[in-house]
Specification:
- The protein has helices at residues 94-99, 122-127, and strands spanning 2-10, 15-21, 26-28, 31-32, 43-46, 49-54, 62-63, 66-69, 74-77, 79-85, 106-112, 115-120, 136-137, 148-149, 153-156, 160-163, 167-172, 177-181, 184-190, 193-199, 206-210, 214-217, 220-223, 226-230, 233-238, 241-244.
- It is mainly beta and 247 residues long.
- The chain folds into two domains: 2-149, no CATH class; 153-244, OB fold (Dihydrolipoamide Acetyltransferase, E2P) (Beta Barrel).
- The strands form five sheets. Strands 3, 4, 5, 6, 8, 9, 13 and 14 form an eight-stranded mixed β-sheet that branches. Strands 1, 2, 7, 10, 11 and 12 form a six-stranded mixed β-sheet that branches. Strands 17-21-22-20-19-18 form a six-stranded mixed β-sheet, with no helix packed on it.
- It is globular, with a radius of gyration of 20 Å.
- It starts with a strand and ends with a strand.
Length: 247
């Protein structure tokens, strides 16, 4: 089967890596806060509908930036790492589940890069959806009043940030030419133009091509943050930290 490998980060920067079956109808980055009682976090807006948001049921404050949209709900994660095919997953036996009942939210696990990835049990969610899990149509006359958070900045390996309108493209790392000069680690040629490249990870997979510089990176997060100026430079404030914004 096909799965999305995702990370969920809490407010103390602890990471949980899980797999979600690829039965989604889309992905959204829009979260609508609601003053509601019940066992979901709010709504994610996708194609003029509002989907109740859930995530793994732990007593932690999670930082959710992306929402995988299923037919009846949305699942919130911090980042989506990649999409893979898995031929077989290991199931938990009854003795394991009796000893560790918190594992019942997972249907099993598989190994990836010498790491055990737990598979979230989406079918169990469908079976146990409460009555207040209702997908709603967006009311056009009230849409502007919703507290919708739209991502505005790409964060690169938690080291740099680039405004969304300053990014030309995101490509794979195969075109990178290593050549250390000054603050740069190499260069690429993209559409007949040379861009200096800054490497932000030793396990780089992607190149983010900006208007003036490119970043060779491993992880890209699309987030909302506060942008401010200091000494003629722009900075991003997010999750109690400050990152430079590359122009």
């Amino acid at each position: 089967m096909n799965y999305y490998i995702c990370e969920i980060k809490d407010s103390k920067n602890n990471l949980i890596k899980i797999a979600l079956v690829n039965e989604i109808i889309g992905v959204s980055s829009k979260f609508v806060k609601k003053n509601i009682e019940g066992n979901f976090l709010g709504y994610s807006k996708f194609k003029d509908k509002l989907y109740p948001v859930i995530t793994i049921p732990e007593n932690k404050e999670f930082i959710l930036k992306f929402f995988l949209i299923y037919n009846s709900f949305a699942f919130g994660v911090s980042s989506i790492i990649k999409n893979i095919e898995v031929s077989e997953i290991e199931k938990f036996n009854s003795e394991t589940l009796e000893q560790f009942p918190h594992l019942r939210i997972f249907s099993g696990y598989f190994e990836l890069d010498n790491e055990e990835i737990f598979v979230f049990n989406v079918n169990k969610v469908y079976e146990e959806l409460p009555a207040n899990f209702v997908v709603k149509n967006v009311e056009k006359d009230k849409e502007k009043k919703e507290d919708i958070i739209n991502p505005n900045v790409f964060v690169i390996d938690n080291k740099y940030s680039i405004l969304r309108n300053k990014i030309i493209n995101i490509i794979d790392s195969s075109t990178f030419c290593s050549f250390k000069h000054g603050e740069f680690d190499g260069f690429i040629e993209y559409k007949n133009k040379i861009y200096n490249v800054i490497k932000t990870s030793e396990k780089a997979k992607w190149i983010v091509v900006g208007e003036k510089v490119a970043l060779l990176c491993e992880k890209i997060d699309f987030v909302y943050g506060e942008i401010f100026d200091s000494q003629d430079k722009k900075f991003l404030r997010i999750d109690n930290k400050t990152l430079p914004i590359l122009e």
